Amino acid sequence: MRSNIDYSLYLVTDRDVLVDTDIYTDVEEAIKGGVTLVQIREKNMGTLEFYNFALKLKIITDKYKVPMIINDRLDIAQAIGAAGVHLGQRDMPADIARRILGDNKIIGVSTETLKQAQKAERQGADYVGVGAMFHTTTKDDASAVTINCLKEIKEGISIPVVAIGGISEKNVSLLRPANIDGIAVISAILGKKSVKIAAEKLGILIKL
């Protein structure tokens, strides 16, 4: 397990939420504001477009030594030398992904229950993403997970737990009782006029 990864402020990309700017500028500004890990999540791109897009973003993440994770696409992750992949419940099993990618890559798995989280850990995942915690407009099929369930997952596995889904400055403090390892956000950073300031504010709030 790669224990030196900082999951505290985890940015997931979505070009649809940007405010009068471009994704490359925003990702760089978000990293300057304190983002510790970036996941490229683009569902509506062909393979060549995704490859070129991720390659260009990796130049930025590499510049700041921030790990880049690719959502779902192991082929893209391998092609650009990404730090790892993030898998959903309907994607490739984590143990198969581990066999393909090897021991040095980060593998994350989306979960909603303790059972799913424990299975991900058994299959060799490095961390789990748990959510959606709150209502979110960026993922239509996400169901709500309670704070108690999040706490149960955190206490029931030994790998890092990252909360995701509708997290913002207004509700992030509600996650504190679960003692999680980080939060993953989209709109709370990329949907703001100044992504750097938004990242800085979230960074302060998760440390309080």
How would you describe what is shown here?
- This protein is an alpha/beta fold.
- The chain has one domain: TIM Barrel (Alpha-Beta Barrel).
- 38% of the residues lie in helices and 16% in strands.
- It contains 8 helices and 8 strands.
- β5, α5 and β6 form a beta-alpha-beta unit.
- α1 packs parallel to α2, α1 runs parallel beside α8 and α5 packs parallel to α6.
- The mean pLDDT is 94.
What would a concise description of this structure say?
The protein is α/β, with parallel strands linked by helices and about 210 residues long. Helices cover about 40% and strands about 15% of the residues.
- Broad structural category: alpha/beta
Question: What fraction strand?
Answer: 15-25%
The CATH superfamily is known as Aldolase class I
Assign an overall shape: globular
Low-confidence stretches: none
Strand order across the largest sheet? 1-2-3-4-5-6-7-8
Q: Largest sheet at a glance?
A: 8 strands, parallel, barrel
Secondary-structure arrangement, i.e. CATH architecture: Alpha-Beta Barrel
- SSE pattern: EHEHEHEHEHEHEEHH
State the total count of DSSP E strands: 8
Layout of secondary structure:
Elements: E1 9-12, H1 23-32, E2 37-40, H2 47-63, E3 68-71, H3 74-80, E4 84-87, H4 94-101, E5 106-111, H5 114-122, E6 127-130, H6 147-156, E7 161-164, E8 182-185, H7 187-190, H8 195-207
Parallel strand pairs: 1-2, 1-8, 2-3, 3-4, 4-5, 5-6, 6-7, 7-8
